[in-house]
C-alpha cells in the first residue's frame, strides 16, 4: 500500500469476533495522521488477494480472499452503510465510503460526494 506505518504508530490492536467467523482486527493508532494515511490508501487493496500474499496458505473461498480496511462505526452508522451497500447493489449508487465516521455517497462517477447522516438522506437522493 506504500504507507509507512511502524509498530510505534500503533497504541493497541487485537482480534474482534463478530457474528461471522472472521479474523477481524481492531487497531488504535497513536497519531490520527497515520490512521488517515492508511485509510486513504485502502483503495489499493481492491486488486490484492490473500492467496497472492500467502500462496502456501490453505485454500480460501473467493468471498473471503479480499482484504478490507473498515472503520469501527456505531451501530447506527453501520446500518446506514448497510443500506447504502444495498442501494449500490441495486444500481442506485455509484459508490459510498466513510471517513472519520462520516458517510459519503456518489450517485455517478462524475458526481460530487454527498454526506449522509441517516437512511432518510439516502432515500432523498
Describe the model.
The chain has 125 residues and is of the alpha+beta class. It has 2 domains: 1-69, no CATH class; 73-125. It is 26% helix and 21% strand. It has 4 helices and 5 strands, in the order E-E-H-H-H-E-E-E-H. The strands form 2 sheets. Strands 3-4-5 form a 3-stranded antiparallel beta sheet. Strands 1-2 form a two-stranded antiparallel sheet. A hairpin with a 7-residue loop joins strand 1 and strand 2.
Can you tag this structure with a few keywords?
125 residues, alpha+beta, three-stranded antiparallel sheet, 4 helices
Termini separation: 33 Å
Could you describe the largest sheet, including whether it forms a barrel? 3 strands, antiparallel
- How big a fraction of the residues is strand? 15-25%
Low-confidence spans: pLDDT under 50, at least 5 residues?
none
User: What class do helices, strands and sheet pairing give?
Assistant: alpha+beta
User: What order do the strands of the largest sheet run in, or round the barrel if closed?
Assistant: 3-4-5
Instruction: Report mean pLDDT, rounded to a whole number.
Output: 87
Provide the gyration radius in Å. Answer: 16 Å
Q: Name the quaternary structure.
A: single chain
Domain unit count: 2
DSSP, total strands: 5
The helix/strand order is EEHHHEEEH
Shape: globular
- Percent of residues in helical segments? 25-40%
Please count the helical segments.
4
